[in-house]
Amino acid sequence: MLKNNLGFPRIGSHRQLKKACESYWSGKTSLSELIEVGKKIRIENWKLQRELGIDLIPSNDFSFYDHVLDHSLMFGVIPQRFEVLKHLPEADQYFAMARGYQQNGFDLKAMEMTKWFDTNYHYIVPEFTRFQTFKLNADKIISEFREAKNEGIITKSVIIGPVSYLLLGKEKEEGFDKLSLLDRLLPVYCDLIARLVNEGAEWIQFDEPFLALDINYQTKDALRVVYQTIRKEFPALKILLATYFDGLQDNILAAVNLPICALHLDLVRCPEQLEEVLPKIPEDFTLSLGLIDGRNIWKTDYQKVIPIVEKAIKTLGTHRVMLAPSCSLIHTPCNLENETKISAEIKDWLAFAQQKLIEITEIYEVVVNQKIECLTKNQASIQRRQTSTLIHKPHVKTRVAEVKSSDLNRKSSFLERQIVQKDILNLPLFPTTTIGSFPQTDEIRAIRAKFKKGEISVVQYNEFIKLHTQKVVVWQEELGFDVLVHGEFERNDMVEYFGELLSGFVFSENGWVQSYGSRCVKPPIIFGDIERKTAMTVEWSKYAQSLTQKPMKGMLTGPITILQWSFVRDDQPRSSTMMQIAWAIRDEVVDLEKAGIKIIQIDEAALREGLPLRQTKRAAYLKNAIDAFRISASGVQDETQIHTHMCYSEFNDIIENIAEMDADVITIETSRSQMELLEAFAKFNYPNEIGPGVYDIHSPRVPSVEEMEVLLLKAMEVLPAQNLWVNPDCGLKTRKWPETQQALRNMIEAAHRVRERVTEFA
User: Fold this and answer.
1) Binding residue per annotation — 609?
2) CA distance linking residue 247 with residue 233, whole number of Å
């Protein structure tokens, strides 16, 4: 029985990759130094997995920015606009595709970025044209295979399957289907496989996550063609096909009839699929059991998963069963041993990536070698968590259970509220604002670190934050913003900040997970019932509002996003935890209104991210998510304007649900997609106000006035001018001040130009 791992965190246990990339981008270190950091991380990861007893150790799961972008480079899928950078080192071309490029007379927009299925990981979207060609560049995957081989490790190369790779991309021209490119792409895959086999590869893992989604016959047939072709050309190759994030369901027959050697199932997200799959498994077909949660950080209950292993063994035999995490472990932190400040009681309940691999080995030892002591130790931890007095608060559960209709609804309709709000706020056409945060400089981070270490007093810290807040308020007024923000300098993270002020949360020191590129997040851990202990943002918002006569937005993170961007307790339904957070946010919204804040933004950047991959599961999630938002937002009077913000979301299939949120203003990402996302709002005749992002903050590139003006004019083609706001597409925390200042100056100027044009036309 083989122990199989699908992927391991690539950022390094102390974010070495993030630091190395950012140092290289800023010109402080060389490309060779960056490459060496990557190599060191890879070798450490491979050796660690070998030491922990993993049999199938992955390679090509490492990336300097994004694994989907790596595949685009590997297959020559480079947008035409980047051809002018051929004179640069390949790494600089690669980073330009991810981040944009604005130097040496060039001004190239970054490729689009969107969420990886229902995770908070963002991938770079491949761009396909009708006459797309493919050309193999296997240097990265081959060199990494050789690196591991030199360490005495024959790895299992991880490759996105050709069907899923095409489906992850976007047609940049009308009138063709990206799957029609398969005939051109498949020979390149075969060339790649030939090179890996020639290097000594025995296993190759093809990730085809779309098999866990609702797919049509055309897609199923494409999968059949792909793997029949590969099997015909490489009859001795051991192919492991990996699915994850949901069950196969109606795709079971399509999967088990493929000519592969092993099939991986996510038995955490969909444990019931094993019953359906087992009777249909062909002879000599191996099943990889995804038993260990690759998306969360709780210890696995061996008593629950061992019967699953034994059931599979009874049908297939020990040699036809693999033990594995449910998906790649890039969605979990590296090593729990790096945590020194989590209480011993709670730490006893947790498992990070390294510990999850230990769990695989221990389950193997219990099942194969009858090492009952592993089971006994595990069950003691599980029992301690179940009986802990830290977790449950009856009064919190009672409040969630007693929701009334009035808790879910504003007092008046949007059209009635809009009249009141326009009269009170007196904003011009195309009001300008930002999403909330401003750059967090090294100086701010250093002061926060000193405060947390007790090296400066709370008075000193608050005075420092007040000074920066005052500066940014004055700067926004000078620039001409219509609605201001306080900059959020007191906040370390849009979720962690609130979690630290709510009960039921605990925080890691080094629990970093990659979000995109060099951007890492440290998700809070929700272990118990949640309530607001004290006001969280009111004093900072009051202070900022006292500095200006213009409206100052109160800035909050919404219940769905706090839930999605945390490691959530698994001992009660996620919807129950979401509602607990909603009531805590509602209390804060009401207090902000009492403090005189007229505009309150409740960010729901992750609403789409939480949408189940299967259509049949979506209605229940959307009802819970919309109810949670409405609970958080509906405690205020008509004159208080509620904003929300959503990141990188395709809205076409959930636009009615977005409207049901009944936010007065929604701000969304539209700059990388050139306003394409607005079509859904236009077709639906979305009634409320919208701020389509005209400035991509995920790139250091500064868009011109003309570029943003064009985007606003595009927005006006599909939406009423009186309902449009002007803003960046996300918060500015991760950007540098010089680029931020210039981009926002250009944005304000673009708004003024369009405002004048509309006035002249009228």
Assistant:
1) yes
2) 29
* Cβ–Cβ under 8 Å, residues 526 and 574: no
Is there a binding annotation on residue 519? yes
Looking up tokens 């394409």 gives: 676
Closest CA to 740 of 432, 431, 440: 440
> Above pLDDT 90, what percent of the chain?
87
Structure token digits, residue 511: 């629990």
Q: Where are the domains of the chain?
A: 2-331+345-386, 426-761
> Which residues does 5 contact at the CB level (< 8 Å), separation at least 6?
49, 54, 56, 57, 58, 324, 325, 329, 357, 360
Determine the straight-line distance between the first and last CA of the chain, rounded to whole angstroms. 74
pLDDT value for 671: 67
The secondary structure element, H or E, covering residue 587 is: helix 574-594
Strand ranges inside 410-516, DSSP E: 505-506, 513-516
- Tokens standing for 141? 């995957």
Residue linked to tokens 């689009």: 112
**Is the pTM of the predicted complex or chain greater than 0.70?**
yes
* Structure-token pair, residue 63: 């990336």
310 annotated binding-site participant: no
**Which residues are known to be catalytic?**
698
Is 480 labeled as ligand-binding?
A: no
603 is in an annotated binding site: yes
What are all long-range contacts of 33-37, with beta carbons under 8 Å and residues at least 24 apart? 34/64, 34/91, 35/91, 37/12
Question: How much is the pLDDT for 673?
Answer: 65
Q: How far apart are CA 674 and CA 743, in angstroms?
A: 17
Torsion 675-677-682-686 (CA) sign: negative
pLDDT grade for 596, boundaries at 50, 70 and 90? very high
By CB atoms closer than 10 A (0-12, 13-18, 19+), residue 250 is: exposed
* CA separation for the pair 624, 622 (Å, rounded): 5
342 assigned binding-site residue: no
pLDDT in tens, 140-190: 999 999 999 999 999 999 999 999 999 999 999 989 999 999 999 999 999
426-761: same fold as 2-331+345-386?
yes
Does 2-331+345-386 carry CATH code 3.20.20.120? no
- For 184-227, the pLDDT digits (tens) are 999 999 999 999 999 999 999 999 999 999 999 999 999 999 99
Going by the DSSP 8-state scheme, the letter that residue 18 receives in this structure is H
Polymer length of the chain: 762
DSSP assignment of 685-735, as one string?
T--SEEEEB-S-TTSS----HHHHHHHHHHHHHHS-GGGB-BB-SS--TTS
Q: Which two tokens stand for residue 641?
A: 């304007």
CATH class for the domain made up of 426-761: alpha beta
For the record, the structure tokens of 463 come out as 């005075």
- What DSSP string runs through 651-694? -GGGHHHHHHH--SEEEE--TTTTTTTHHHHHHHT--SEEEEB-
Token pair in block for residue 36: 């060496």
Q: How many CB atoms lie within 10 A of CB 431?
A: 20
Contacts of 320 (CB under 8 A, 6+ apart): 284, 285, 286, 287
| DSSP tag of 178 | G
The gap from C-alpha 745 to its chain's centroid, in whole angstroms, comes to 29
Q: Cα 9 to the chain's mean position, in Å?
A: 15
